Amino acid sequence: MKRTLEKRIILFSFLILFLTILVSAGLDIIGFRKDYINALFLRSQSLSASMKGSIEKVLNLGLDIRDIAGISEKCRELVDGNPDIAYCIITDLDGNILYLSDPKFQNLAIRGASRSYTSNPTVQINLVGKDPAFYDTVTIVKTADGKPTAQVHIGFEESIISAKVKGMILRSVFLLLVFLLFSFSLVVIFMKKSIIQPVSVLLKGVKQISEGGFDVRIQEVPVYEFNELAKNINVMSAYLKNRDEEIRKNYQELERTHSELHSSYLKLEHLSHELEKSEELYKSLMEDASDAIVVVGEDESVKMVNKMAEEFFGYSARELVGLPLTKMLLLLNIENIPKIHKIFKDASKGLHIAEEMQIVKKGGALVVSRLHASSIESGNDRLVQAIFRDVTKEREIMMNLEKSAADLVRLNKMKDSFLGLASHELKTPLTVIMGYAELITTDMADKVDHTVLEMVGNISSAAMRLDNIIKDMVDVSMIDEKRLQLKIDDVHVNQLVRDAVKELAFFFSMRKQKLTLQLDESIPTIKGDMFRLVQLFSNVLGNAIKFTPDGGEITVTTSAKYLLRSKQSADSVQGQSIVNIGKEHHLYVEIAVADTGIGIDREDQVRIFDKFYEAGNIEEHSTGKVAFKAKGAGLGLSIAKGIVDMHGGEIWVESPGYNSDSGSGSIFHILLPLNPLVGDSSLDYMNLLH
Q1: Any coiled-coil ranges, and where (predicted)?
Q2: How far apart are CA 637 and CA 458, in angstroms?
């Protein structure tokens, strides 16, 4: 293939070059011949005009042309001075020779012109004579009065042109061969380097790939088109390799499938032997089933009932088998018989129907039953199998559960109402108590006994603590009722952390706990309520202090994260817009509070944010705001979650579990969006792992 292509290209290139140069040389020779002839014609005409002028000057003196001496010598001088000119002859108008340059042209048949090359009446060019032939230029000589009196014949031999053309042909042939050899060599070199070699490389690579060498990669070739072809062949090779691997896998899968089909065939053959036993087995299972089963035929008559059906309905099989379906339903005193009749029709079409109904057993007992109707085939017959299950006790339990759920909802509403009412009702007397206590301890301190003053101070401390609890209750109530208003402003998260830490610095010192801040200074500001965010972070940080033993460590980290947010539906609650930022990546600021405390059980990690919920054993809790395992009202983390939700963020906790001895620790994660819309929101929690 390679040699054939190479020979064809070389032969084609040779023919093209040869024909091109040959045609060019031929056109040059034709042009040269024509130009040479025209040049001789012009020279002949010029010499004829010169001779004519000389003769006419003498004729103007009144002499006859036959009396003029020296014309023959003048003709010889003209011929000798122009080697290409063969003769110069002066004739009369009849063609009789009067003067000539050489006597050997005495018999030249000037009047026998075989061809004429011009139609000018004063100057004519004719082809005269044979072997040799001459181009004869004829110029009319006129007397002083303008009458023609003689003719000047200047001629050159036709063979001169042939000789010149022959020399031109020899030179052209020589140049043709030299240029052809040089051009052909360049073409061959270019062809070998730019075509044959790349084609050979491609052919070699393709041959290896065709033989199964899909790992072969064709190296880069210098020609762009062939290089692109090589790249595509490499891509094809990789694709073929993948296809080959897929075919191998498919072949293996086909073998495996064939083996499975063979096994299935054997199993099917075995099942065919067991098919007869299946009917007996079905009858046996039907008889021993714990539910009442009734089989209805295509003619809507009862074909079969099991023992449980006899017990469930109170009628024997002899009383039920053969009855029309409608009559059996009437016998059982079932309400809305057309609906039940339609269920059996739909089931006969292949649908699986479930319906609950009341049945009156023989003897008058009322039973709640759940009907499951489905289609079965027995040979060419399509039957309907109806399973009746006694759900009387289940219905009673379900009704009790629904009643209990309604009671729980009512109690929860009462709890929320009580929470709001109690917080507002306690706030006024508590304010009075705190006011009088402050008045006694400040303005009337010198009038009161020291013991009484100390007791009033304890009352003031207890009242302040109770006031904090009431404030938390008010916040929880406002959050639940969607009445908590946020004052949105630019918030520096790192500064927020520092402010909250500064407020709790005394408690860190009191508990001898180490606080580590790892704050990313590059995080941007966010939109939020500074006061509520400080309250949120203080609650989370206070929780970490309470459940971390003395000497423990608490680490606070801030960072920015891009998270995928699930698209939420737009809504509005009391004029506030629900966060709806679409399902795409958005920038969030994360605050992580990690401690080395006692940890949190996995079942408590979700419920810990519920109102009044306290994780762990309540009996182990101590009193005090930040004392180890201090007992609180269970509102701090609930308020924190409500504030986070209102900012369109998320809060959750991670902990390996509760362990008071080793201190498994926990990490609270707080995510706040860069620029939320105020309102309710929920993150796609599974996407937080991305």
Answers
A1: none
A2: 27
